[in-house]
Amino acid sequence: MSAISATPLVPSLFAWATGDKLKNWAGNIDYSTDNLHSASSPEDVRAFIKQQRTLKVLGTRHCFNKIADSSDYFLSLKSMDQVIALDPRAPSVIVAAGITYGKLSPYLHEKGFALHNLASLPHISVAGACSTATHGSGEKNANLSTAVSALQFVTGDGEIVNLSREKDDEMFRGAVVGLGALGAITTLTLDLQPTFLMRQYVYENLPLRQLQDHFDAIESSGYSVSLFTDWQKQRINELWIKSRTESGRAFDAKPEFFGAKLASRNLHPIAELSAENCTEQMGVPGPWYERLPHFRMGFTPSAGKELQSEYFVPRQHAVEAILAIERLRDQISPHLLISEIRAIAADNLWLSPCYKQPSVTIHFTWKQDWPAVRALLPIIERELAPFNPRPHWGKLFTISPAQLKTSYEKLPEFLQLAKKLDPQGKFRNAFLNSNLFGS
Ligand SMILES: Cc1cc2nc3c(=O)[nH]c(=O)nc-3n(C[C@H](O)[C@H](O)[C@H](O)COP(=O)(O)OP(=O)(O)OC[C@H]3O[C@@H](n4cnc5c(N)ncnc54)[C@H](O)[C@@H]3O)c2cc1C
What we know:
With 439 residues, this protein is an alpha+beta fold. It contains eleven helices and 20 strands. Strands 11, 12, 13, 14, 15, 16, 17, 18, 19 and 20 form a ten-stranded antiparallel sheet that branches. A five-stranded antiparallel sheet has the order 4-5-9-7-8. The relative contact order is 0.16. The chain binds flavin-adenine dinucleotide.
């Protein structure tokens, strides 16, 4: 989630062209170099990679930590953002890696197709999102990278590698959530389904007690369900239910739902803020890509004065984990803008935080005060430790590399895969070295 200070300003990727230092979207990371090469073709990507000692591919810069950082060179595929081919029979689509969900989704809908899910905002690149296991919500919906059925990428020595779910099994499952460590993804093939309509309903003030007693019923009430809370007053401030309209799947919106009251106007996750940049609510039907994200594509936030952290816990411990965080409310609240709780289905991608584990995520959108947040994260992580929390790869965490190692049973195989595809370590950076490669 969020985009709390989302206002329609300058298109985000040109921010540094005005002379500003190259930063991430939130502005909390000054990247270590301003050197950036913008590639326009796969040949250009190959030639550029061959020349570099180390580099990182930059997506839409929406990560809050230094996972995308480079001290030498950035490669941007922003202008490689075309739909390459749509196969209506599969159905599937091949896209160039720089495309955003915001550009791809209306095209798919117009052709009669849909993706299975989207994140809270559509402005992110497909390659960057899939590389970090970005997710939406819905207990039956796995993260966005599970829609990938094939990948093409360029390795450190400029070779083109094609991997597919069908042919490459294990290696493919290791490469999809690649954290940018394996090469530069140039195309992705994504699974599609027939397009669908959705309605979005928001309820206010769900008592925490009701969530405790009816967690499964609440989570299964819609195709995608989000719980927003400031952890105050023993309640979930807002419950967002995104429901498909087909008969048998539609949510029957009664004025009251487990003690929460149906909202009578569109709401922002922080009720005091204007809902102008939020997707339509109040049960108004609309295409999947205008209901699954919380924020509308038309509003391009140039930057967001916020920080984010998010932890995945096994679904069976969701209520205990939520209650553990609630006990920290007095420490958390002064630094918090809002929290969001979502459910995600299990998958089989090696570095996905949902690897073989149906999960619930507890997300924090923080005020932009890193010293305060950095002091708080170990306290939160300690409280969640009994549930073996896995942090979101693109957000802020202080969990140790040793702990990450015990959380990912396929990490040794991933490291081998990285060594095989990138023996010179061209795509490594300080984040990957300290968190994964142990150097
Ligand atoms: C306002 C906001 C809302 C968000 N909402 C959600 C949400 O709902 N759910 C969620 O899970 N996350 C969410 N996130 C986090 C976000 O989805 C991830 O950080 C995601 O990785 C962003 O994609 P990006 O293209 O901006 O990545 P970047 O930050 O640009 O890069 C991320 C990683 O991907 C790699 N990469 C990018 N492109 C390529 C490529 N072509 N080849 C190889 N590697 C590549 C980079 O090297 C880097 O390692 C949100 C972030 C923000 C700022």
